[in-house]
Write a structure and sequence with these properties.
This protein is mainly α. The protein has one domain (5-126): Four Helix Bundle (Hemerythrin (Met), subunit A), CATH 1.20.120.330. Helices cover 78% and strands 0% of the residues. The chain has helices at residues 5-28, 32-53, 61-73, 80-98, 106-126. α1 runs antiparallel to α2 (32-53) and α2 (32-53) packs across α4. The protein is globular and about 40 Å long.
């Protein structure tokens, strides 16, 4: 039995929501690296759902970011603010995963969480 495009979109939306649940758990446990990671993945899964809706699919994070920028930022479908959020949460995820001695403050994580909520709200309107 094959899956329909709507099934993939629904799956990615649910993965984004699941990332938020784990994000909230990470914050409550003061696991700030994991929180930043989940912030990024909530955004990633939503943009991935948006891409699928628009007949684009990739497993590569940078390719997905480029697709989003080229199709939604350059064409002014969404505000530049969304690009700044996407770039920031991606950079934070990379720093948290690969930079030695990187630290995140609870204030930064909470600010990023609020930015992520705004990003998700705006992207869901397009899906």
């Amino acid at each position: 039995m094959g899956y329909k495009k709507e099934d993939y979109i629904s799956y990615r939306l649910s993965r984004s929501e699941e990332a938020i649940k784990y994000l909230e758990l990470a914050i409550s446990n003061n696991s700030l690296f994991n929180a930043e990671n989940r912030i990024y993945y909530s955004v990633f899964y939503l943009v991935s759902a948006l891409a699928i809706k628009n007949n684009y699919s990739t497993s590569k994070h940078k390719q997905l970011r480029n697709w989003f920028h080229n199709n939604f930022i350059r064409n002014e479908i969404v505000s530049q603010d969304l690009w700044k959020i996407y770039k920031k949460v991606f950079d934070n995820r990379i720093a948290g995963d690969y930079d030695d001695f990187k630290k995140f403050s609870i204030e930064q994580v909470n600010a990023d969480f609020n930015d992520m909520k705004f990003f998700c709200q705006e992207i869901k309107k397009l899906i």
